[in-house]
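W.,

You were right to be curious about this one. When I first looked at the sequence I had no strong expectations either way, so I just let the prediction run and decided to look at it fresh. Below is the sequence, 85 residues in total, followed by the output.
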Amino acid sequence: MPRNLGSTTLRRRRRRADPMANYDALPTPLRLWLATAALPWSPQSCKRIWEKSRKQGLSVEETIAHLSALEHKSLARDRVSNARP
């Protein structure tokens, strides 16, 4: 069975903490976004982006839009996804 990143050129990272416990601790809107994300984001990185955006005064909707924009930017860098017709 292939893994999420089996056919991508994006870098992989090992997790040191329990990702499910970290996921459960996220705010509900962030968990909902993460559940439908195209990339396998780590809960830690999402939480870091979430907190930084909220400190900058972005609303929940603006923060979710920011996360989506970052995800699209990452997908655009992926050579494999860009090579597909």
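Here's what jumped out at me. The chain has one domain: 21-83. And, maybe more interesting for your project: DSSP finds five helices and no strands in the chain.

Coffee later to discuss?

I.
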